[in-house]
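Supplementary Methods, section 5.1.

A reviewer requested that the exact input to the structure prediction be made available. We therefore reproduce it here, unchanged from the version used in the analyses.
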Amino acid sequence: MAYARLGTGATAVGVKTKDGVVLGAEKRVSYGGFILSRRGKKVFKISDRMVIAAAGLFADLQTLGRILSAEVRYRETLTSMPMKIRAAAKLLSAILYSYKSFPFLSEVLIGGIDDEGTHLFVLDPVGSVIEDNYAAVGTGATIAIGIIESEYREDMPMDKAFDLVVKAIKGAASRDAVSGDGIDIAIVTSRGVEEKFVPLV
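The structure derived from this sequence is encoded token-by-token as follows.
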């Protein structure tokens, strides 16, 4: 499903399969019609089996990544157990809701794998949480979600899920002027998190 657009520009995509989750986001950082940077990282590793990808105000995305990473590490240290993906999504939801009077300008995808299986959650700026098999957020979401919906299958292998995320973001970047300059991808499986960069050519 596609979610509300934010004026700062970005496209982030997530796809869940039975074997793992693939999340990706393009690298362009823009404000209005101005491209501030072509090297922005909008995919953040939170733990060995958990990743977020986001669209919105770049400083807010970085801050949310740092806050969630610190909170997850703290709770895992206290309990000596890995945090479940659903629990991390609810934690991030509570963090976002606590700032609802002055919200983070962000849309966040959180994905990962735990002993319950694979998960992909979508959160809006005030902490609404939706679990889904695939999602796209940001200004390029409308284009990206159309590509995903036409090809997604729950039983697709991880390499096909990777290709689909890349195709969706490339399609969005080709039509959305504030998305582009390469794609950061995180592949989350039971073996851990693998990060890749895909150039846009």
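The chain has one domain: 11-198. These observations are discussed further in the main text.
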